[in-house]
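Check this:
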Amino acid sequence: MKWERKFLFGFEVHAAPVLDVGLNCQMMIGRNAKVKTEEQIAAEQAWYGSEKVWLVHKDGFSLATVVKTEAGSLPEGKLKIKLEHDGTTLDVDEDDVEKANPPSYDRSEDLASLLYLNESSVMHCLRQRYGGNLIHTYAGPNMVVINPLSTPSMYSEKVMHMFKGCRREDSAPHIYSVAQSAYRNLLTTRQDQSIVLLGKSGSGKTTNCQHLVQYLVSIAGSTGKIFSAEKWQAVYTILEAFGNSSTSMNTNASRFSHIVSLDFDQAGQVASASIQTMLLEKMRVSRRPEAESTFNVFYYMLAGADSSLRTELHFNHLAENSAFGILPQSKPEDKQRASQQFTKLQAAMKVLGISGEEQKALWLILGAIYHLGAAGATKAGRRQFARHEWAQKAAYLLGCTLEELSSSIFKHQTKGLQHSTSFRGGSDEASQGDNSGSKVTALECLEAMASGLYSELFTLVISLINRALKSSQHSLCSLLIVDTPGFQNPRLAQQQRGATFEELCHNYTQERLQTLFHERTFVQELERYKEENIELVLDDIESSTSLSVAAIDQASTQALVRTLARTDEARGLLWLMEEEAVQPGGSEETMLDRLFSYYGSAQGENKGASLLLRGEEPQLFLLGHSHGTDWVEYNAQGWLSHAKHNPAAQNAATLLQDSQKKNISGLFMGRASGATVLSGSIAGLEGSSQLALRRATSMRKTFTTGVAAVKKKSLCIQVKLQVDALIDMVRRSRVHFIHCLLPKAEAVGGGGEPRVTHGESPDSGLMTLNVGLLRAQLRGSKLLDALRIYRQGYPDHMVFSEFRRRFDVLTPHLTKKHGRHYIVTDEKRAVEELLESLELEKSSYHMGLSRVFFRAGTLSRLEEQRDDQTRRNITLFQAACRGYLARHAFKKRKIQDLAIRCIQKNIKKNRGVKDWPWWKLLTTVRPLIEVQLTEEQIRGKDEEIQQLKQKLDKVEKERNELRLNSDRLESRITELSSELADERNTGESASQLLETETSERLRLEKDMKDLQTKFDSMKKQMESMEMEVMEARLIRASELNGEMDDDDTGGEWRLKYERAIREIEFTKKRLQQEFDDKLEVEQQNKRQLERRISDLQADNEESQRNIQQLKKKTQRLTAELQDTKLHLEGQQSRNHDLEKKQRKFDSELSAAQEEVQRERSLREKLAREKDMLTGDAFSLRQQLEDKDLEMCAVNLKLDQLEVELQDLNSQESKDEASLAKVRKQLRDMEAKVKDQEEELDEQAGTIQMLEQAKLRLEMEMERLRQTHSKDIESKDDEVEEIRQSCSKKLKQMEVQLEEEYDEKQKVLKEKRELESKLLTAQDKVRGDDLETEKRLRKDLKRTKALLADAQIMLDHIKNNAPSKREIAQLKNQLEESGFTCSVAVKARKSMEVEIEDLHVQMEDISKTKQALEEQLSRLQREKNDLQSRMEEDQEDLNELMKKHKAAVAQLAQNLAQISDLQAQLEDALKEKQEVQEKMQALQSQLEFQEQSMVEKSLVSRQEAKNRELETKLEFEKTQVKRLESLVARLKENLEKLTEERDQRSSSENREKEQNKRLQRQIRDVKEEMGELAKKEAEASRKKHELEMDIESLEAANQSLQADLKLAFKRIGDLQAAIEDEMESDDNEDLINSLQDMVTKYQKRQNRTQEDSDTDSELEDRVDGVKSWLSKSKGSTKNLSDDGSLKSSSPPGRRRYCFDRSDEEEEEEEKGGATQGSYYSRYRYGSQAKDDDGEDRPYVTTS
């Protein structure tokens, strides 16, 4: 916060007078938060004393105070609170109460910095900021923007420059801050960035997107300023016209999703840009909900077209009604606004370079769409236009005939739909059946044509915009801005209708982006913590929006298999729409039934159990978006039409390409030649830059991989693929999220009123918030969970090595300890040592396995410290550089001064000789001599220059050819790489298809084998049953033959039959009674279980409610605990910082006290020295006066001696001996006097030196006194300020934590100890002063002793006074010696002064030398570090560069060198010519000098100049030779480049061959696929045949079982018939039939030849039948002889049982019946009847 306040304060000082209200409020908050007053501290203490809470209720939340009550007076879980606004006292639940923050947090700029993080506190903070026109708020790493209803003035250019170059921590919350943060990360990490805007429709996403683009373009700039703010304003004007419309949620809503891609170069400037669009709501042209309009461009064109354009578009007479609802606006103000917008649109197109012909083509297509709506279509009968005159106008505008337009719209519908459905799977019969059921109406065809035309038009507009934005510059990384339509909910706008399919697509896109936010915020962070072994206790994070997303786009595992069969595997709504669109009889009801069977709730209308519910009507359903906080009701009526291809929409592109109007056909033919649209879904993939190609390749891969390769033609699945491409592109970059919130629902109501424009004053009610709507948006976006994981976790992290390299500059002592070239073996240990030296708190960071993690804000503080340290280092480096440059400039000035003096001397000499006639003659004639020679040289050089120019032109041509070839090869390489990627993706999808089809074929083969075995078993079972039937019939026939003679058998059988019937009836009654008893018992058990289940369900619901309440309570308590823990950590970190500051203050205080003490001791010492020197000077002055007196006495004595000497001279009577003696004494006296004079001179010199030292010391003492007084005053001020600030901080610490009082006592104790130490140090210093005083006293004593010695010597001289003569001689000698002594003393003093100056200079030189050496070593270390970094960067750069780019760059460099060398050569030639002219002039001067007999010295000087010029000429010649050698080397480089070009051409040929080989392989794979498809078709055919066989076998089996029952019954009838009619001839017929059956069985047995146990049994039975037949033949013969028996049964029964048609007998004899026809003769006798008409059962007796 500190840096942010500094920034805002600086803004207030330097900004313009007109400022934003919100920013002013932020500055006021910053100033108030900087230093707290006593009132604020008292208010905070009162706040903490009274527990303030928020009472949460359905209308919002209210501030209240917790009333303290006695324990037990309230029930458990209850609280007594007092509301602040009215003083009401309430008893509420603890769950309805949330803690409130102090008032200082009311307008907190970051929601993560709140003391208590809960829903009410967050909404209160947002509401307070919104009320102060502060619409931007940080939410941890994200940004929250509440859409203002009036356009604020916070988006000016001045505000943009405020945020330029700032870090996020230093700037206020603003949309520009997000852009600056993304731009800064892009420059520092060289990684792609993306900004994603989330929110409801009308929350301001598109407006914020425009602000982001304008800021990035304005701040980053571009080369040549090709991307200006005006151009981007024109782009958004066009997009708003062609892609926006008025809806119930927003008066200017975007009806498409788009991605703005800004590509940046190495310097951080915008190199190129592009826009990709998807999910255009193209059906809005022809069909839209009520009270909503079509796209804005239609209204602009109808209102703003001029007369000529109206005439050309046939707008002079507008239609009264339109099938598309496109009608001009009725209000005059709306018409005027639309006309202005049309003028603005035309100006924007002009800015983007869209020509008049291209604009005219756009207006023609829009006019044609309008006329198609006016033409309409018939509702019944033949499909055609309702009004042909309007259709004729539309055809004219499109450049085609009416017949062509009509056939493109209404003809070939069945064929087109059949083709589209048969692609998805199924046979042609199914598709034809589908087409017969759903017939396309004429109006639907017309709507499809209009939507197709507008889709092509919109794609063309995006292509034209990208054409104006593209650039050929090299780009390094890109920044994406994603803007999609927001959440749509018609109920929010008070509209009673269901949402449409287009609104579902937009909501699905927002859900996917919310899922991406959840993944980046929660999933990836938790996975990273888990990988790094970081334990982080968090609340249960709810799952993402995967349930609602899965309900829309979940694909089945069999998505690659093209089948029409409905499976039970769950799949999303888009896949169900595709399946139901091709199913015979498919409808929206069946689609919704299947959807609810997969995702519906099992507990009815329970929104908590599922996110999908049924509506009040069959075609309505509810889907819970945003984690179930936003329930949208959808109306699925007519949704299946979106899944069907309509050829009219596909014919729109062909119609435009074949147009007779050149401006239309030229635009769309150009688009058709280049791959600008990807599967008809994503527009704006043009571009030749590397990043644009990479984005196009990424999207192409999304559309050609896996399921997408098969389903990319599906209209429904294209929605999912487009969103997948968008998410995949964003996921590759670092994402910055902006949550746009809607303030209230009334602001976006369906009134259709426009918003408050810029400059209008909004009323007071506009700045209020809808709390319920805001709460729903916060819960849906999961912002609180994101803030909680941001506060509790470690959001900032860095790899060990990167962190050490980046922040190693903060610890220079570690660098000195290890050395600059120290190799780190353990990065983790090095980082731990670095963190310890930085003195960070332990809780602010965590060491992982490979990286170090930081709490929020810690890394920004380290970055701030690093910036400060780097700033200081750069300042020192700049100072050293400036010093170095200044010294060099001084040296240069000295050389220039010397040169100027030389030039002046030469000019003076020239003035002396310029008037000589010979000099004039020489200067005139000498150039004329060598004119011819110079002209020849110039001609030669001109020829050389021409040759070099020709060579340069040739090289330039070759370079251009190489560049064109390289560009062509690059484009070819990109095309081949894209084609290769497409082929690879198709191959992968084909392999996946092959694998799935192989698994399906294996499964079908396995099923076929199982069915075959089942068929064989059934066949065997059928044969065994046939034999059993035959055996039973034979046995029955034998029994009949054996018991034929018994007359009483009929009665016995009847008795047995009646007994069996009674037993059966009794058994039935008993079983019925048992069943009723069991049923009653089961029903009782069921009722008991149902009661028990209901009780358990009630208990379960109660427990679930209790669990939910406990869970909420636990979450609330956990959140409060975490907030308290974070607050405690913050207090601990604050204490840590205060302790550091206290330690720093103590160290500074002790240093200041030591400095004061030292200054005080120095002052006392100087005072003592001054006193001592004053005393010494006084004594010396007295001694000097004494010496003067003595000198006066000596002079008097000398005068006396002179007088005596004169007397002695007058005496001539002295002899020579006495004279010699006197002379000898005189010499002795002179020597003594000389010695005394020397001693006196020395004494005088010492006295003078002492006086000078005294004066110097006095001056130094005075200066030190002044400086010391100033220092003491400044130190006292600083100490006073520090003491005051420390006392304030200590007061704050005492308010916050009482424990710090003890620490303060400790600090005071340490302070006393330090003071005692200071006193001891003072005593020690005083002892040192005493020692110096003793030493000075010793010197004084020594001086006094010397003076006493001199006095003794003077006394001795006085006693031994010589004669006058000797005194005169001595006086003369004394004067001479005094003069010499004074000269020596002066010389000695001057030498001592010079020596002292030299010592001072030596000390200064040594100090500067030492400082320079330290600076040089530091610069050397920094130089090595920079070189190492530069080498690393250079290696990375070299790895990224490609070979062909390097070759082109080398060629360009060589050519640049050639041009530079040519320029150098020309300069050298010019210099050579000048030198030659100078030489000629000098030679002429030389000849003149020789002729005029000038001095030899001048001639020699001229010869030296000539020699110097000759050396320069030779140097120029060598330079020319070097240039020629360089040209030869460049030729060799060109030859090498040509060789490389040949090699590239050969490699291109090899790549072509490889491509052909790949194509052959692909062709082989396709052939194999065809064969596999054939095999699959054959397998399906065989499977179908097997299924038919199985069905026929099952039918035969059923018929056999029925015939078997019939046979058993028939046998019973035969028993009765044989008893009655033994005499008839039917027995013989039976035997014959049985014989025929036996022979047929034997034939079939011989054919099959299969042996088994059942076969042996059958053979035994057949043998028994044969033996019986042989016996029965004999018996029948006897019977025939005896006559026929009379039957006891009536003839009607015989006729019923044994009637057979002759045709059936003939068929049996021929054997032409199929399987199961052996018993066809019994088909009419399924049940024998009694005489009474009752059913008679069959009873067998052994």
Remarks:
- The chain has a mean pLDDT of 76.
- Residues 1195 and 1567 are 144 Å apart (CA to CA).
- The chain is about 70% helix and 5% strand.
- The longest strand covers residues 270-278.
